[in-house]
Design goal:
The complex is a heterodimer. Chain A folds into 3 domains: about 45 residues, no CATH class; about 130 residues, Band 7 domain (Tetrahydropterin Synthase, Chain A), CATH 3.30.479.30; about 90 residues. Helices cover about 60% and strands about 20% of the residues of chain A. By secondary structure, chain A is an alpha+beta fold. In chain A, a hairpin with a 5-residue loop joins strand 7 and strand 8. In chain B, the strands form 3 sheets. In chain B, strands 6, 7, 8 and 9 form a 4-stranded antiparallel β-sheet that branches. In chain B, a hairpin with a 5-residue loop joins strand 7 and strand 8. Chain B has 3 domains: about 60 residues, no CATH class; about 130 residues, 2-Layer Sandwich (Tetrahydropterin Synthase, Chain A), CATH 3.30.479; about 50 residues, no CATH class. By secondary structure, chain B is of the alpha+beta class. In chain B, helix 3 packs across helix 6. Classes of the chains: A alpha+beta, B alpha+beta. Chains A and B meet through strand 9, helix 3, helix 4, helix 5 and helix 7 of A and strand 6, helix 4, strand 9, helix 8 and helix 9 of B.
Chain lengths: ~350, ~325
Amino acid sequence: MSEMSNELELMLRPLWRRYRRRIVIAVLALAGIWALGTLCYSVEADSEGVVLRFGKYLRTSPPGLHLKLPAPIDAVAMVPVLRVQTLEFGFATEAPGRVTRYARPTDEHDTVASMLTGDLNLAHVEWIVQYQIKDSFNYLFRVGGQRATELAVRDTIDNVAESVMRSLVGDASVDEVITIGRDQIASDAKAEIQAMLDAFETGVEVVTVKLQAATPPEAVKDAFDAVNRARQNKEKVVNEARGERNRLIPAARGKRDRAIFEAEGYRERVGREMAGRANAFLTVLAEYRQAPDVTRMRLYLETMEEILGQVEEKTILDESIRGLLPLLNLAPERADAAEAKGGA
Amino acid sequence: MKVALILIGVVAILLGSASLFTVEEGSQAILTEFGKPVGAVTEAGLHVKLPFIQRVHRLERRLLPWDGAPENMQTKDKKRIFIDVWARWRIVDPLLYFQAVRSETRGYKILDDLVDSAVRDVVARHPLIEVVRSSNRTLVYEIEELARESEDAEQVQFGRADMEAEILKVASLDLKQRYGMELTDVHIKRINYIESVRQTVYDRMKSERMQIAQLYESEAEEERNKILGRTRKELDEIEGELQQKSAEIRGEADAAVIRIASESYSQAPDFYEFLRRLEAYKKTLGPGTRLVLSTDNAFLRQLRGPGEGHGEGRDEPAAP
């Protein structure tokens, strides 16, 4: 044994002599690198560094370069406090981007999304929870059970979010879940999830809870659509009827008003016409009364003059030659008229 | 001398590392002497122990998860459902825990048995509605008819939160005394009908909605007919008003004409008649008329001679 080591020594001695300086420098350099690694640490811009001394909390460092004691004494854990993280429930984003691609829905997604509503119907709800770390000490040291603390916390948020969402949906109607109560459910969920996570001291702040899709189950979608269609059709039919009504009524009112105005016009016209005639008569009468006999005869004669001037066929008979009458060739239709006038 | 110093140094380091130990935040430690637990350290930091004799066992001090598998069960009202439950627990008595449970794996196993049977117990004692609902808040519907139906839905005396509290109570019965563990929370993660029941639920939902769709359809017809009927009625009212008012106004006008005429003409009826007669002659006797007149006529009387006619013809035009 010793002979062997003696031989090794004999072999190494010249090497040592020759490279002593270089070996010392190399060892010192390695020691320097190690010291640098264990004495300094840098915290990323979106993180905080939690420093433990012999496992006990010492301080929290902001982003930047910091010094600490070497390895067995001080240890640092980095916590990304500014990073907003997202959990998806009932669906999975495969490749986010300008056109986000979603993974094909699996049975597991369906199990998460399918929920009993308060009226014992089923609804399909997909949602997201976004969170941020607000207390890095609690985040690191209050929730465990997994090798990595971010997994443990994630797991807790996952469980809490599913329970809270299900209990809210279980206390609402299908209609509320699908349409009218969505915002309310999301904001209630945010508050309740936060309260539970605070009770567990997870050190996590819930940033957003958002319902992505809240729909009736695939199997009954058609029936829900039929209701929507029927409702829209109802509105359409009613609007059409109202349109018809709006087309007819004002036109009829216009017609009515027109007829009434026309009647009023008639009243005005004939009233005034008659009043005019009456006034004319009274004026004439007043004058007539000044000299009735002369006026009467004058009017009579003037009229007869006018009439007889216009009448083309005139037969004048003397009282004394009565026998001529039967000889006259009178058209039968004129006989009556002639007799009437003649008799006058 | 030199060798002795090095030896002392090595021994000191060995002794130091054997008698010092650290406990990290979020964990706790048990010290054992030849396998027998002698003390617990719950404070984080650097601690001292007897070298070589005492050994350190580290345990979790953080909240620990438990997530059950989905279990099929029946509610009190014979609804077949599956329930998926999760819980959170922690080690509260590390010494007892170390003796009775020792590893987390065994801890989970204990919880599996306790929580599962507690869930089964409690669920079997309550109807489905009490597992699902948390309160008696009134469900809100977009559709009035559905809201009315839900008003006479059964009320719950016992909500999901009470249910979870009861499960917690049943499951953690002697957990602390026997195992040094504490269940802090039990919550229902998922609850749903089993696959075969789901189809009948879908059918129910479908028929419920189709009935509403039909209601809307006939309501549309109802509303349309109402509007059109009312329109017809108003049209007739308007037409009637038209006829009534214009007849009244025209009658009024005619009456006024008669009144004015009679008022003025009755002051001199015979003069009026005389004028009117002349006017009528002018209108009726025109170029196409053939007149056969006697010289006895007042107008022509003068044809008989210069002396005759006057006086006698005075009344003539007034008496046709």
